[in-house]
Automatic annotation (TrEMBL):
Pfam families: RPA. InterPro entries: Replication_initiator_prot_A. It comes from Deinococcus oregonensis. This is Replication initiator protein A.
Amino acid sequence: MTKQAEQDLVLREDLNVGHLGLISIQRKIAADYASWKVSFNRAGIPSEIECNGAQKYGVPHGIDNDSYLALQELYIEQGCPEEGLIAFTMYRLLQMCGLEDSGANRRMMRESLERLSATQYWISGAWRSHEEDDWVTVGFRLIEKLVFTRSRRDLEGAKLISVTLPRELTRNIRNGYFKPVSTALLRQLGQPARAAYRVLDALRHDPVEHEARAATLQITLMDLAQRCGIASDKPDKIRRTLEPIHENLLKAEYLREVKVTGRGKKQLLSYVFGQATPEPDSTLVTLLVTLNVPIVAARKVAADYPDTVRDGVAQAKAILARGYKPNNHVGFVLDVVRSYGNGKYAWPDGPLAVNAASAVPVPQSKGRLEDPVLEDLPVSADDLARTLAFLLRSEGVQRSDLAQLPLGVLQDMHSRLLGRPQDERSETAAHLKALLALS
């Protein structure tokens, strides 16, 4: 995909997170701001949320909005594993948050993950369980388990990060209780407008019929301050905080109009929203679901890769029909669709392709595709190290060094290399050398 196409991707996040204001939009907080407690009505139900963070980190805020959105996206990318466990590199996390790979950003992102892991929430009557179609009382951390893995030579931080997301969140996502987030819009906004956009967008969605999204919204100033985690009860200060956010959202055309009426704590904000994020083609979603892809992942991939879903599904079916058994079936199907056309996966031998709708072999009309070497599909760490060493043979990267890296890192590097031009391969090689402390 082109960089422009990557910027047009639609992300997904659990509706509760933004609706309940679990992460403050404020970039900076007071050093002693380590807990908060609020009471309100959600869909007419009396609710209460208590947040207790570690004194060392304070409560979740600022960059945590970006990092937690990225974690939910990674969960969907990796096929929505039932146990909630995902693995990724720090480089990948920074990339998803639109940040440069620098020492300062790595330290900031590590602190964000530690803060999310150290903070305990108690949510009374306000958490929507989509599977149970009910409101529940729950207690959890946004990151239930956090593990950093690195070698003794790695002085810059973790090579591989493992995160376990809470069951309450992952179960909702697997059952489709999420809302879209526009990457193109996020790229136009700075913080705290990025986070405020997601809060306002969540409030547009009905918490029960969650796919219904209103074109207008009315909310009191004090209620919005609470949902945004603005640590003040002074209306003038809250207004000053929101004004540049409104300007940013109006300029990006997410908002068409903002009106403020009333005085003091009784001020009412009225919003008129711009263009809604388009929904994916239901036919493409169905194709993916037939291969056991969870609905949330199917909708996301259908929205992000509409031009490759049919052919990608056909290729995945063809490879599976040859007897290939991936360790992660859903992850394999999604990867074939996302990488279709860049040479990462080859078609089975013979002049036949698989029809995406029926999976019945039919003659090709666009010429014979390259013969594959299905047995050479890299599935183990050793295979990946051998493949990467071959691809980067001109960059001086040795197989023996690559063999030291965790499987997740090798998979990440492999997906970024195949089908890419030489200049992009050089960039990946430089990153690998940094990981290996060779440069």
